[in-house]
Amino acid sequence: MIHAMNAxxxxxxxxxxxxxxxxxxVTEMWHxxxxxxxxxxxVLEQTCRALREGALSTELHWQAAREAPKLAGALGTxxxxxxxxxxxxxxxxxxxxxxxxxxxxxxxEEIVTSLRRELEQAPITPFSGQTTLRSDDRxxxxxxxxxxxxxxxxxxxxxxAKIDVIxxxxxxxxxxxxxxxxxxxxxxxxxxGDGTGSGLALLAELMRQTPPVPAIVLAEQxxxxxxxxxxxxxxxxxxxxxxxxxxILEVVAQVLQQVYAAEAKVLAVDDDPQSLATLRVLLAGQSxxxxxxxxxxxxxxxxxxxxxxxxIFDVDMxxxxxxxxxxxxxxxxxxxxxxxxxxxACTDAEVVHKVFSAGADDFVGKPIxxxxxxxxxxxxxxxxxxxxxxxxxxxxTGLANRRKFxxxxxxxxxxxxxxxxxxxxxxxxxxxxxxxxxxxxxxxGDEVLxxxxxxxxxxxxxEDVVARWGGEEFVIGMYGMSRQNGxxxxxxxxxxxxxxQFLGPNGERFQVSFSAGVAEYPADGIxxxxxxxxADRALYQAKTAGRALVLPAAAxxx
Length: 558
Hints:
The protein is α/β, with parallel strands linked by helices. It folds into 4 domains: 31-118, Four Helix Bundle (Hemerythrin (Met), subunit A) (Up-down Bundle), CATH 1.20.120; 139-260, Rossmann fold (3-Layer(aba) Sandwich); 264-391, Response regulator (Rossmann fold); 402-552, Reverse transcriptase/Diguanylate cyclase domain (Alpha-Beta Plaits, 2-Layer Sandwich). 50% of the residues lie in helices and 16% in strands. Helix 1 (22-53) runs antiparallel to helix 10 and helix 16 (433-440) crosses helix 17 (442-459). The two termini are 54 Å apart.
């Protein structure tokens, strides 16, 4: 769902309750902006008269030169392909000095007359595809497979993760489900066929949707040629059907996280209201929160208010142009890593060179083509998330790493100072972990670490931060948690973890425990390093006392 600052995209409901193709919303938008578009054409007509009379002012010439590219971008979006071409030709003529020859003036008049005639026709909107909006927070997994027992086991696992499973035993049924209620992810059996195509055929259809529907393929056998075919079509995963449902759901959850993580925030800056309205329509239904800004002078304030994940700039704007805004962003350490996409009708080589020299990541020319724009935005956001994850996430456990944990704890400390709330810091360490590696092998040891990481993540609140500090050592930051309450919480987690069963390579089952120490900010220290050492001493005492124990830090000295 998109939340826009200046306006909201209009959803048009059909008789069947489904949102109609985006082209209907764009057509409605054309009727809304038709008068503004015709007013821009009137500026070009006024410019032609002034040229013919030899009375073209610098101000009017400047205004016409600005309106022509805006017309080109808007008309192409609304389906006036010929009108967009004429507007671009007008832009090229007006790009020269205001003193034009008689032949050039005559040609300009012919172009503008044809442009006016073109706009008297109904637009042919070039968009297709559907935008489905859903207000609930549950995700829908469509499973295309006729194995009822398998789907039921999968549904049981999915229910825990708030994922609704819909079963489609045949491709024809699956196509109807996709059209009726667009799923968040499709899990399709590679060999599923019923006379209406194969699993690969359905995958290809899902990738042609606007935007594409994320799909994962299930295979009975692991054939490299099938993996290549799925990768070529854009499949998000290739899994053996024999895998446990829990592992399959893990991959589904990863895909959902990639697509829907945190509803990425986009800030678009353009002085043209038509362009901003078009963006709202085209990005409706994406998991994006779009903020639009038509005055670049307010950019710095809105940037700090919204903290976006991606920026979209127009090039030609009054007061501060897009290239200057890009340079401002790149010169600030906090925002320098934000992906910047330019969306503009100015596509000549000089402008493109300036845009990338200023630090832009991508460039999309107007008119806006919905699928292309969505793909560019999603690709940039996913690349940014990937780089961020590599810098902040421990690969084995999926928890925060030391760097990320340190950043979050500093944030906790600042909140604590403002609101006078304690912060609990726990340091925990697996007991006899070397023995586990020696007896069962490092692969089993890695499985223990991975399982503990997931267990801790599920056991603590979403506002807490859980991290792998290194080796078999983990740390937990708990905002608003005192030392004693932290000990109670960790003790309950320890008791639950002791019930977990692990399986060695020889089939032997075993259990694992951990020991922990808990310190409190600011009572035990006001710096992370100090708190860590205090909690670590308590951890050492727990180890000495026999392990499988959680102890509070000793009272702060002095």
